[in-house]
Amino acid sequence: MALGKRALKQEFNSFRKHLELGDKIPDFSSETTLGKISSFYEWAGDNWVVLCSHPADFTPVCTSEVALMSNLTEEFDKRNTKILSVSCSSLEDHLLWTSDIQKLAGRDGDLSFPIVEDQDRTLSFGLGIMDPDMKDDKGVSYSSRATFIIDPQKNIRLIHQYPSFTGRNYWEIIRILDSLLLIESHPLATPVNWKFGSETFVLPWITEQEKRTHFDDVRHEQLPTGKDYVQYGSPKLTEEEQEILHTSKIAENVKSVDGLSTPIQSRKNSQIYMRQTRTRLSHSKGEIEPPAGIKETLQGGFEAIYTPEQQARLKVDQHGFKVVYESNKQMELPKGLQDRGTYTAAVYTIEQQKRLKVTAEGKPLPTRTPQTLKTQTLSL
Prior knowledge:
Number of helices: 13
Largest sheet: 5 strands, mixed
Strand content: 15-25%
Low-confidence stretches: 249-286, 324-329, 372-380
Number of strands: 19
Structural class: alpha+beta
Mean pLDDT: 79
Strand order of the largest sheet: 5-4-3-8-9
Radius of gyration: 28 Å
């Protein structure tokens, strides 16, 4: 049975000073943008939950975070994970705020996950996530940027806290979630900077039979001490895990590296966009195969890209844009590739340039007017 506010405070106080890893989060009820949650336990069901707190509505960092979560909803759905946001503002403000969130996310319609009304800080205080350096006009602290990952048994498996002025890294949250899900079904540990699809550590105390059951190609690292505790292996993924690995490189609706719609708009004003007409072929209509590659971005996330083989064969750049030059629409498409620093562009090969008399970009070579030789009469 979900607890009322007074009982909830008493229940949370029993955890003082803070909730810790392994604690079972108390059940609670709350008003949200998608209606009342009478029981958190019932709402979560058998799913994992990512619960994120935000200091306040109508603030730039909070808005960018929830906007990215909106764009990553499909990623969490694939992992049987629900999203719950908590913000220290009123329900009325939440409902108004969602339009700003979706605008920044570049999405239409309503936000698909609920935002909890926590204007009186009951839930934030109970979770122990208050930020003493950030207070409202009445001197009441706002919440920090906290993240909890909660398993289907309602046990807390991750606690992250960021200061109010520092936005969190949601790709890291997905990475940790992937690790937790993999650990649930395999006797392994994930190394530093591990990413889904790469090798894991094999737990050194498991039997040889367990190794053969769960891993391919177990290899042992030879250490100076002679101790055999560093063992690498590729886990044998279930069909569900393989589906996540092959389809979750980046959410299909993410429009730029950081998942928001704004940055790509400025790129359209660059010279490369002014010189070219770039047409994105629709994946949803089956007009072109989906990207088969993946690239790590400077921001620490991942971006689905077309591999060099796909780019050459499909005549697209790494983002799936077909390049058609205005002055050469009737010409054959370029067959080569060139690294432009931030992306790979389609270019005409040297053989094409010589045969078609064009530059690498497909522009006609400048014509040269033969110069008349000047002669001088030398007087002796």
